[in-house]
Design brief:
two-stranded antiparallel ribbon, about 70% helix, disordered C terminus, about 450 residues, two-stranded antiparallel sheet, mainly alpha, globular
Amino acid sequence: MASAAEQLAANLNLGVLSKATELKKRIWFTLAALIVYRIGTYVPVPGVDAGVMAEILRQHGGGILGMFDMFTGGALGRMTVFALNIMPYISASIIIQLMSAAVPTLEALKKEGESGRKKLNQYTRYLTVFIAIFQAYGIAVGLESMQGPTGPAVYENGAFFRLSCLVTLVGGTMFLMWLGEQITARGVGNGISLIIFAGIVANLPHALVATLELGRTGALSTVFIMAFLVIALAVIAFVVFMERAQRRIPIQYPKRQVGNRMFGGENTHLPLKLNTAGVIPPIFASSLLLLPATFAGFSGDQTGEGVLARIGAALAHGQPLYMGLYVALIIFFAFFYTAVVFNPTETADNLKKHGGFVPGIRPGQATADYFDRVLSRLTAVGAIYLCVVCLLPEILISQYGVPFYFGGTSLLIIVSVTMDTVAQVQSHLFAHQYEGLIKKARMGGGRGGMPRLR
């Protein structure tokens, strides 16, 4: 009996390794795609002086421009083909999701299942092109008026530069959108989130060196740097704890008799995460705040008296308007995205169709109201948690000038994307294990290789 069990375990291990070939391919494809993305962040836009752009970023990197450069993985500071990164696609996704809740036609498409989802994705792509063109043209015009300590940022102004810059930036955004979709379909994890994640992680060593350099020059004390790193680790641990927190609603299924056998009667639970929206609210909030501030930063207004310059100053880090809008947008998108991904009425109806019920709650509308009440309370706590995590480092950044890569949004993105990717890898491994177990059980029972359990 022991030898039979050992043989089964050995066969299962071989089965898992052979079946894990697909997972290996997915992981290698994801790594290759991210390497292609990182290479693209070093391909410059034609006609732009990269040295002047680096000087301008060093001068104005403490504001919204530095935050945008963080999301682009340093591509904006080098003014490369991926300078816009995936932000136009995120902005388009926000607009389409908002419209799908307000426009009946789009709402009907959302309920059509896979076909409706494909149409909404197509509309998102079209809107991405429009937003990318708008932003790319604004950047091209702004670059022509930018002056660094050593000269202009553009070698030769004119229509040809604007056209080439527009085509290059829009093409880079569309390629990243396609690359993100390919990672989602053929790789591991969410492609769009992984692209942002790769950009932030790639510059973490540089941010750490810059922070230590501030300590060496005396701009920051050694005690403060140590305390800041401890706070960063504490925030990471807090994010992991909150992202794993969930409310488990008990679900019961009644027993039913079919012939001489009894079926059903299981007791299970419905897990509701404390932060159902995940990392989406901070990313969406940052994207919307970057839209007006991007053009304010590239307006070329050197006096600071123009409307766009005033908007850029009001939306700088640490300013009350920026903090207030950031908190309001995070709370709004936390509730909005939770409503998008979880429908209490639909969940209650599906539960009722399968005979399940929540103990003490009547099936149907009463169950839907109960789900909505519980989810609203969880989302309120989750939104507060997101605001605390994102605002606390932002205050430290604005007051002490530490790099953006240690901000709450960046830490939240890194931790959340890492946890989601690891969870997907584990789900692939579990699927391979169950498949190998079922296959070996069938072979053992049908061919006599393993005795049947009696």
